[in-house]
């Protein structure tokens, strides 16, 4: 199931608001490490399975306060009912989307001036947050969709996916249903580091993912810190990046196309087991 969006624009009250929901995606070929932290570019391509929103879902509302004083710094975030600090990555994502809106406003004087107005964001997960269930991917995916709608950008899905990547790398895959690849790309500006749907959510209806929550507490080691440590210390990582992942990506896409579960399962487990080598 893909991202869902609902938009509300109330000109009288000076509020521009949108709500979006997004699914969790679980990687079967994982990316681990970044070649650019600033642009959130991975060291290798990856592939994931998007789960049904009926079970695991993030929902985010974004509200632009159009009648407030200009103040881009007054973005506020509530996560699961509690106000939370806005991370540097979310700030970067919002700044990029504000810039796009400002460019639109400079070309059309009839547009409301929203690019410099405060944005309030409220996000809720119906599953444990920061506990290893990819809440950042679903959360940043629906945040990007909601802000896109609230600011009236109406960007193509691929462009919103690329923006979501700035907040959380794997968020770019949660913009699509079914089986989704994130191609690492080779360009320095990251323009070719994009997600693409390998097969739709209806392609393999017998495929199910069983999620067992052993602990709902937050991880002791955040994913970003774990990736940085691996890049700095693992002598096996470069071999995985150059010699292992490319062949696995090709093989698992063939298995998905053929609905060959035995091959799919073997490739998935080989990739998982390598992380414990």
Helices and strands in order, then pairings?
Layout: E1 4-10, E2 15-23, E3 25-29, E4 34-36, E5 41-42, E6 46-50, E7 57-65, E8 76-79, E9 82-84, H1 88-107, E10 119-125, H2 135-150, H3 157-167, E11 179-182, E12 195-199, H4 223-233, H5 237-258, H6 261-274
Parallel strand pairs: 8-10
Antiparallel strand pairs: 1-2, 2-7, 3-6, 4-5, 6-11, 7-10, 8-9, 11-12
Helix pairs in contact: 1-2, 1-3, 2-3, 5-6
Textual characterization of the structure:
It contains six helices and twelve strands. The protein is an alpha+beta fold and 277 residues long. The protein has a six-stranded mixed beta sheet, with helices on one face. It has a four-stranded antiparallel beta sheet with strand order 3-6-11-12. Strands 4-5 form a two-stranded antiparallel ribbon. Strand 1 (4-10) and strand 2 (15-23) form a beta hairpin.
Distance between the termini: 34 Å
Total helical elements: 6
Structural class: alpha+beta
Shape: globular
Largest sheet: 6 strands, mixed
Strand content range = 15-25%
Strand order of the largest sheet: 1-2-7-10-8-9
> Unreliable runs, pLDDT <50, ≥5 residues?
none
Number of strands: 12
Rg from alpha-carbon coordinates? 19 Å
Helix content: 25-40%
Task: Return the string of H and E elements.
Answer: EEEEEEEEEHEHHEEHHH
Mean pLDDT: 87
Please give a quick description of this structure.
The chain is of the alpha+beta class and 277 residues long. The protein has six helices and twelve strands. The protein has a six-stranded mixed β-sheet with strand order 1-2-7-10-8-9, covered by helices on one side.
């Amino acid at each position: 199931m893909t991202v869902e969006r609902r938009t509300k624009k109330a000109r009288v009250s000076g509020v521009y608001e949108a709500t979006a929901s997004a699914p969790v995606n679980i990687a079967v070929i994982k990316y681990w490490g970044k070649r650019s932290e600033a642009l959130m570019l991975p060291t290798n391509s990856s592939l994931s399975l998007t789960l049904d929103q009926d079970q695991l879902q993030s929902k985010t509302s974004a509200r632009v306060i159009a009648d407030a004083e200009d103040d881009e710094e007054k973005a506020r975030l509530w996560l699961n009912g509690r106000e939370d600090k806005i991370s540097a990555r979310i700030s970067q994502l919002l700044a990029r989307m504000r810039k796009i809106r400002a460019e639109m406003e400079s070309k059309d004087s009839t547009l409301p001036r929203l690019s410099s107005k405060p944005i309030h964001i409220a996000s809720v997960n119906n599953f444990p947050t920061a506990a290893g269930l990819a809440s950042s991917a679903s959360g940043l995916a629906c945040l990007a969709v909601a802000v896109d709608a609230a600011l009236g950008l109406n960007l193509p899905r691929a462009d919103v996916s690329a923006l979501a990547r700035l907040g959380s790398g794997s968020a770019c895959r949660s913009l699509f249903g079914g089986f989704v690849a994130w191609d690492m790309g080779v360009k320095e500006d990251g323009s070719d580091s994009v997600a693409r749907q390998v097969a739709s959510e209806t392609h393999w209806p017998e495929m199910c993912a069983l999620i067992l929550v052993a602990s709902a507490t937050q991880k002791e080691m955040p994913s970003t810190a774990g990736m940085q440590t691996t890049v700095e210390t693992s002598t096996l990582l470069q071999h995985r990046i150059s010699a292992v992942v490319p062949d696995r990506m090709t093989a698992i896409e063939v298995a998905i196309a053929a609905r060959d579960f035995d091959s799919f399962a073997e490739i998935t487990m080989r990739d998982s087991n390598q992380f414990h080598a």
